[in-house]
Amino acid sequence: MAYLLAGDKGGKVLIYNNFRYQKNKKTAAKIHWRCWRKECRTPLQSNLFAENEEDPNIQIIQSEDHNHGGEKELISRSVLVQRMRDSIRTDPTRPIKRVYNEVLTQAARNVPVEDTPEFRNVQSALKRTRLSLMPEIPDTINDVDINGEWATTWAGQSVETRAKSWPCTFLHKIQKSETLYSEGHGDSLSAGSNRPSELPSLVSCKTDKKAH
Ligand SMILES: [Zn+2]
């Protein structure tokens, strides 16, 4: 079966029989692909299909032997990373480590452990995906909406406007931080800050970043 995966540089790669192909050119009736390995470049031809469709109907017209073995492990990893990215897109507020663990847990029955990526190898790519989806940090208090459980104190009182004035500068700093350490302090807003990696999502900007 042939299918598409997101490539490392934004384009799509074609996966077929555990080999990975880059698009070479499109003609009126076919798409020409080549093995992604420079030392191989074995050609493959597919039908002309809708590359942006969710589940395109891909047919392989012609394929040849490669001068190397199939790349099952590499492809399994790419599939898993793609699933992690999709999952982050569904809900970017979750910490990436949690998304990573969830995807690997779900895949555990079908993918051998040695074919799964280590967290440190996918961390920065997942971080980039997550950051690209986060709302922009608000510049003024008028841009701030505090939602859900964070809009009220534990006693159920709504947070006073003046108490909202801390997030803007705080969030600008927090987004740049690699590691956050926190202690409890008087303000009930920070009562949940033992989950620092989720903090930037607590306050959203009214002018959300346009989807891209
Ligand atoms: Zn090849």
Throw out a few tags for this protein.
single chain, 212 residues, alpha+beta, 3 domains, six-stranded antiparallel β-sheet, two-stranded antiparallel ribbon, 4 helices, 18% strand, elongated, binds zinc ion
Question: How would you summarize this macromolecular structure in one to three sentences?
Answer:
With 212 residues, the chain is of the alpha+beta class.
Characterization of this structure:
This protein is of the alpha+beta class. The longest helix is centred in the middle third of the chain and has 19 residues, at 72-90. It has 4 helices and 8 strands, in the order ββββββαααβαβ. Residues 185-212 have low confidence and may be disordered. The strands form 2 sheets. Strands 1-2-3-4-5-6 form a 6-stranded antiparallel sheet, covered by helices on one side. The chain has helices spanning 72-90, 96-107, 119-133, 167-176; strands at residues 2-6, 12-16, 19-26, 30-35, 43-47, 60-63, 144-146, 203-205. It has 3 domains: 2-63, N-terminal domain of TfIIb (Single Sheet), CATH 2.20.25; 72-133, no CATH class; 135-178 and 196-212, no CATH class. A hairpin with a 5-residue loop joins β1 (2-6) and β2 (12-16). The protein starts with a strand and ends in a 7-residue tail after the last strand. Zinc ion binds next to loops.
